[in-house]
Amino acid sequence: MTRQNYTFTSESVSEGHPDKVCDRISDAVLDAFLAEEPEARVAAETFATTNRVVIGGEVGLSDQDKLHDYMERIDEIARACIKDIGYEQDKFHHETVEITNLLHEQSAHIAQGVDAAADKDEGAGDQGIMFGYATTETEALMPAPIQYSHAILRRLAEVRKSGQEPTLGPDAKSQLSVLYEGGKPVGVSSIVLSTQHLDEAMTSADVRAVVEPYIRETLPEGWITDATAWHVNPTGKFVIGGPDGDAGLTGRKIIVDTYGGAAPHGGGAFSGKDPTKVDRSAAYAARYLAKNVVAAGMAERCTIQLSYAIGVSEPLSVYADTHGTGEVAPADIEKAVRSVMSLTPRGIREKLQLNKPIYQRTAAYGHFGRTPTEDGGFSWERTDLVEDLKKAI
User: Fold this and answer.
1) Strand spans (E) along 23-108
2) Catalytic residue check, 390
């Protein structure tokens, strides 16, 4: 029997967190190459520290002359990201930070395993396991702790960038401990928020006075009570933020990026990887399938696992778990999801329209639980497979 009464905690980090600065730059590089060529190959990694950003990895375009031209744009791309995030600190400023570009052409051996021959579909870019998850506990079919942790930081970023709250800085972390009764989220036992502030004279109490109204408006009514514990900037001042305060690296916030620990993660990071890399595209596909299973009323909770081998197009396995909430047998769900969608790397990319410059927006506030956009962004959040799944059962 699944536990019905418990407390579960998830955290989020803002777009100004050092690791998220790196995710943003890596995905901006990816978007730039995909805008030039939808089949571009990119595996970009970024490291950031005081006054320094280093970008490495591999890229590939069919036109090598254009590849050289885009290499010249990397500096400009990175500075634009840092400026938009809001960093103008003495030791991390978009105008003065030193950018080192170590990107190089994609390995021919990796390309050989991935590229499609004339008579077969392309293989997966690597081996690996990927998970997708959905639950009825929020409208977005996401776990409540991570969904609202993201929402708090997104709201604070909005008022910071609009100038409404000019004392807030770009770097921040949130954490919510959510109370569940009868298996449903009903409140928060504690709220943790650490946010950079630009006024050195501000105390923790001053910062709480600024952020509390936005937190209250973001959380569902009645979730905050007199018993809710608040921990706002619990260590005191937080003036030096971002890569100047702590080094950042692409791909270090994979649980923040997915389900906040409420569901498994295959281990692969997303940012900076083009959609031939199943670490990213198959994780999106697994979320898409799990969300549609739940939206179809087949379960209140659903986990989908996919597995791949490098150079092999079809998934090695498809696994479904409805956590005791299913109206349909998991084995039947496994057959149904295979029948309604091609799960080859190319099939996933075509179904979800992943060969587009849509990735920079995923770099902060979660890859899942977002609203699909007309240009194809967050296409894996659509629920357009519901009727097909029902027919396949």
Assistant:
1) 41-49, 52-60, 88-89, 92-93, 98-105
2) no
